[in-house]
Specification:
This protein folds into two domains: 9-122 and 253-302, Periplasmic binding protein-like II (D-Maltodextrin-Binding Protein, domain 2), CATH 3.40.190.10; 124-250 and 313-333, Periplasmic binding protein-like II (D-Maltodextrin-Binding Protein, domain 2, 3-Layer(aba) Sandwich). Helices cover 42% and strands 17% of the residues. By secondary structure, it is an alpha/beta fold. The termini are far apart.
Length: 338
């Protein structure tokens, strides 16, 4: 599953002479870990006969595609986080796609209005709680600012992309001023300085440092079903609360895909994204990392065993992404991480 550098000029020339019918391969640039995407790429190849070449880049994927320009072999770009997807479109490295199958597969709130990107899985950000000390099973995000939780909340840095996304959604739902007051209220309830990761939130809940904390659902599955004995204990010590905005749903972020601007195999690229968002693709993708499918009725079985079903918030993710700069600035202005 490796694409060795740029496609040689001779190969490009041969493909050009052969015409569109030769589009028997597709090149994927992805920041997702290989294990979390390779199974769906393999399934696509098996079903269609189209070979998938993949480049896995932890950092700098967008910059590489931009630097390669018109000579880039990239057909499909796969990224984690709606801000990364929106940013790729703003960089001019994606192109709009208007495909009936993709439009039917992906809810309007989970795709770019101009067609530059679509979600492929949902990653919900929820509230973890101590099984022993917290009796309630549901909570609103707004309640995190309630003084009853003073000294009882743990969370990773407010500037981490996961939290910036949540705060961006709060700006969209509450407006900038009320969102800032809410973030101040959450800060006032923290048991310790924001630090560590979502697994550390569960660890601190087990240790009694806090009673509740904010984390992504998939970490619960990874902790409980992993091989690390300590993490198993952290995962078993917590429960996932039904977490929603007041009058809304659960905040979600996404993994998503886009067709590269200069895709040499556009038809195959569109076909791959249509497969990833189909029922068959969703059943593979959703359970790989304890994420949720992009619509109800497919996959998600393992995720729901761990964290229960969710009702994603109705905010359009494209609108949430627009507020990320304001949310990041808000985090600094209230001194959230201080």
């Amino acid at each position: 599953m490796t694409l060795h550098g740029l496609i040689p000029p001779l190969l490009l020339a041969t493909a050009a002479l052969a015409g569109p019918a030769v589009a028997a391969e597709v090149n994927v640039y992805t920041s997702r870990e290989p294990a979390l995407i390779k199974p769906v790429l393999d399934a696509f190849s098996k079903e269609t006969g189209v070979k998938v070449n993949a480049v896995f880049l932890t950092n700098g994927l967008e910059e590489r595609v931009k630097a390669e320009g018109q000579n880039s072999p990239a057909d499909v770009i796969v990224l984690v986080d709606v801000a990364k997807l929106a940013g790729a479109a703003e960089m001019g490295i994606t192109q709009p796609v208007n495909d009936p199958a993709i439009s039917a597969n992906v809810p309007a709130t989970l795709r770019d209005p101009a067609g530059h990107w679509v979600a492929t899985t949902l990653r919900s950000r929820v509230v973890y709680a101590s099984k022993d000390r917290v009796k309630q099973d549901a909570i609103t995000y707004e309640e995190l600012a309630d003084p009853r939780w003073k000294g009882k909340i743990c969370i990773r840095s407010g500037q981490h992309p996961y939290n910036v996304s949540l705060f961006s959604a709060a700006v969209s739902r509450m407006g900038p001023e009320k969102a800032a007051e809410w973030v101040k209220g959450v800060k006032a309830n923290l048991a310790k300085k924001p630090s560590g990761g979502d697994r550390d939130v569960a660890k601190d809940i087990l240790a009694g440092v806090c009673d509740i904390g904010v984390g992504n659902t998939y970490y619960v599955g990874l902790m409980r079903n992993g091989t690390n004995a300590s993490e198993k204990q952290w995962g078993q010590a917590i429960k996932v609360l039904d977490s929603r905005f007041a009058g809304g749903g659960t905040h979600v972020n996404v993994s998503g895909a886009a067709v590269a601007r200069f895709s040499p195999n556009k038809d195959a690229a569109v076909k791959l994204i249509a497969f990833m968002t189909s029922d068959a693709g969703q059943r593979i993708l959703a359970d790989l990392n304890y994420e949720y499918p992009i619509r109800k009725g497919v996959g998600g079985a393992e995720t729901e065993k761990v964290a229960g079903p969710i009702n994603p918030d109705t905010l359009a993710l494209a609108d949430v992404a627009k507020n990320r700069k304001a949310a990041s600035e808000m985090v600094d202005q209230v001194g959230f991480d201080n």
